[in-house]
Design a protein that fits this description.
The protein contains 3 helices and 23 strands. It has 387 residues and is mostly beta strands. The chain has 2 domains: 156 residues, Sandwich (Immunoglobulin-like); 163 residues, YmcC-like fold. The strands form 3 sheets. Strands 12-13-14-15-16-17-18-19-20-21-22-23 form a 12-stranded antiparallel beta barrel. Strands 1, 2, 5, 9, 10 and 11 form a 6-stranded mixed sheet that branches. Strands 3, 4, 6, 7 and 8 form a 5-stranded antiparallel sheet that branches. Strand 13 and strand 14 form a beta hairpin. The N and C termini lie far apart (95 Å).
Amino acid sequence: MVALKDVARQTYLLFSLALLFTACTSALIGPGEQSSSLIVGRVVVNNQYAGFGHLPIGILDKGLAVEIESLDSKYSQRVTTEEHGYFFVPNVAPNTYHVLRVTIERISGGGRRQMENYGMILRRPVFAPVPGKVNYIGSLTIDVARDGALRVHETWENEAARTYSQQRHAGSLWALREFVGVGPKPDVPTQVSPGQVSKEAQTQPAVQTTLKVERPEWKVGYEWRYAWTRPGSSGTFTREIIREDSFEGTASYVIRVGKNEEFYAKDTLGLLGTMSGSIITLKRNAPFQPLSWPLEVGKEWRNRFVLERTAERSSQAYDNRMLVSKVEEIRVPAGIFEAFKIENYRFSTANLVGEYWYSPKAKWFVKERLYEATGVLERELIGFKAE
């Protein structure tokens, strides 16, 4: 004879399992409209970086948080990967999307358990789902090297994805929909109607190119003139290469900006330090390096340094993840340039803190956008001499 408390315990257990099953199968909700799409994708992280604390080393696939966003930022959806890294986003309306972010989340061990997470900004692949169908957008393998550098590979496993999707949704109305593969759409702005895209994107179409650019050879006399704006103020300034020198033993170009002299390492064009008169006011133990040669779309690197403010006798550590996201045609007061867009993210938070547009023609940045605590600082090229 079963005791009443045992019956109650079993009933509670069955009820809990039912709730769990309902939560796990929420993605199986059928199509909301005839034009609704089901997005199928796969993400696998090969983590070799030990700096994540309690996050494990090796292959990570199940339980990754994947955020899908439309390019006009009007829609976003966060889902979690299942077995083998597959994820599903149901009832997606017609638009153009990308995988914005993948986040690894784990509960740390020890006496004080807490959630640890690490977010990776991807913004790839870009895809436009076919209305009314099951759309496979490809598989992303994210290799995290021992130094924390990222490399993302896109592969197509259509038959494996089709098999997993059909097994996962057997008995669902989605199983009756046609399964199609939708590849990346490289010319991003043309995939979105004018009413759905920002004014900037309409006037700055993406350029189709496999361009790879090496480091330019700077010369004394090169100069770049900029207009800048930030909330409540604006102005102009000039950067001019005035000589070649060394900064604490590193061969450098010296650029004059107003009353200051900035030292850029000759081998990377990364900023090492700043002098005012004969006094060093700022210096770094490694250069701030928003460029990594050769430049090519998809390239990523990690940039770490300690910035020392000598007058204040203070220092601050910086840890950045840099990404060459695309090549696009950009219009500034100095003209129209084909430029590499470099994005700067804080390594620990994945927050976007800066964007830089490098032009091989101008041999430096034609536009910069820095996200500061007081607002956005923007600089645009108004003239240059680099011949």
